Amino acid sequence: MYQFNVYRIGPEIKLGSVDISFTNASLFMVISSLAILIIFNLGAKKKTLIPDKLQLISELSYSFVAKMISDTAGSKAKPYFSFIFSLFMFVLFCNMFGMIPYAFTVTSHIIVTFVLAAFIFIGVTIIGFMKHGLGYLKLFVPSGVPMVLLPLIVIIEIISYLSRPISLSVRLFANMMAGHTMMKVFGGFVISLGIVGGWLPLSFSVALTGLEILVAFLQAYVFAILTCIYLNDALNLHH
Amino acid sequence: MLKKIVILFFVTCFACFNAVFAAESGGMPQLNPEFWISQIFWLIITFGILFIVLTKVILPKISDNLETRKSQILENIETADKQKEESQKKIDEYEKIIIDSKLKAKNYFNEAREKILDDINKKRAVLEKDLDEEISEVEKELSELKNKSGEKINKIAAETSAELIKELIGEEVNSSSIVAIVEDQSKINRERKDV
């Protein structure tokens, strides 16, 4: 589990009595953000009718996220586009940078994903109450349920609503951690089986790398699309 | 034999697995709260900066680009349609001109032909008229000549007959009686010819 260790880079920084030192996790957050900013800034700079590669990347991602939002949350979610875009890109780039050997995977830490998920959860709840007032509580009362079952259903709905940040964060964290652990295990097999038997786990490792790249994209997509779905619940209240 | 190898492989794998995990110690670093606050702090900073810069600077540019491209493409399509229409119009006009000019050429040809035919007819008519006139004149002259020749012949006949008679008889005969005889004779000849 060495690859998930967080260690300090540079001096210890303290804010009051709290340790906020720059770590390898911080380093990879900075690298991911910078990479996003550089790629998309270069892509947005040129205003040619026929886009070049970087411009194409940025414009395709833009329309990809825009389509995802309009498909799941409708046109009302347009003001939240930039947040979901940044979220998707941040998670995607953190996942992808984690695929580089010896790199640190920011999203494989539960605290990072939980903070993101909790922020989304709180934000969506605030938006819901702002849009619908106390009527937002109707979210817990599905229509067309017999009166007898209603108390039970309401309790289940509330639990499912409250477990959203946990499920959202654990899904991303567990996927990233499991994938990297698996690669590490197969990597270990290669070493311990040596030149005779090491070829089989090596080929597994290669296949897993491909799978992990897929998972890295998929989990970022799932994270963003679940955010859109929660946002949709808050914006268009129809259960 | 194969079975044995497979079983051996799995046993080795299991042993290795155990060895790999035995090397690890201290459980998951994710649950060690030592750097949680630091991670949260840096996450907020980096994600916040990313979000602000994307929102304020980059995303508007990209959406602008997309919008301008969309409008430009629409414009281009419009102009292309317009030009297509224009070219169609021009083609129509051109075809019309060609058809018109063909008709005109035909007309000119026909006119010219008629004109020439007219001319020819006129000239022919004039010629024929001239010819007719000349012919009639000639005929007239001929008939005149014919008429005159009868008289002259009669006269010559009368003179010669008078001279012949003079030679034969030795005296002059009354010329009027000779003329009357000659005329009678010629009348008889003519009647014989006519019959």
Shape category of chain A: globular
Distance between the termini of chain A: 43 Å
Q: Biggest β-sheet of chain B: count, sense, barrel?
A: none
Structural class of chain A: mainly alpha
Shape of chain B: rod-shaped
SSE ordering of chain B: HHH
Mean pLDDT of chain B: 83
Mean pLDDT of chain A: 90
Q: What is the first-to-last residue Cα distance of chain B?
A: 155 Å
Largest interface: A-B, 57 and 46 residues
Q: How is the biggest beta sheet of chain A arranged?
A: 2 strands, antiparallel
Number of helical segments of chain A?
7
What is the percent of helical residues of chain A? over 70%
Arrangement of strands in the largest sheet of chain A: 1-2
Beta-strand content bin of chain B: under 5%
DSSP strand count of chain A: 2
Task: Return the structural class of chain B.
Answer: mainly alpha
Poorly predicted runs of chain B: none
> Oligomeric status of the shown chains?
heterodimer
Fraction of residues in helix of chain B = over 70%
Number of helices of chain B: 3
Account of the protein in words:
The complex is a heterodimer of chains A (239) and B (195). Chain A is built from 7 helices and 2 strands, in the order ββααααααα. Chain A is mainly alpha-helical. Chain B is mainly alpha-helical and 195 residues long. In chain B, helix 2 packs across helix 3 (175-194). Chain B is built from 3 helices and no strands. Chain B has helices at 2-23, 36-169, 175-194. At the A-B interface, strand 2, helix 1, helix 2, helix 3 and helix 4 of A face helix 1 and helix 2 of B.
Topology:
The complex is a heterodimer of chains A (239) and B (195).
Chain A: E1 14-15, E2 18-19, H1 24-45, H2 53-73, H3 81-98, H4 110-132, H5 150-162, H6 164-197, H7 199-235
Helix pairs in contact in A: 1-2, 1-3, 2-3, 2-7, 3-7, 4-6, 4-7, 6-7
Chain B: H1 2-23, H2 36-169, H3 175-194
Helix pairs in contact in B: 2-3
State the gist of this model.
The complex is a heterodimer of chains A (239) and B (195). In chain A, helix 4 packs parallel to helix 7 (199-235).
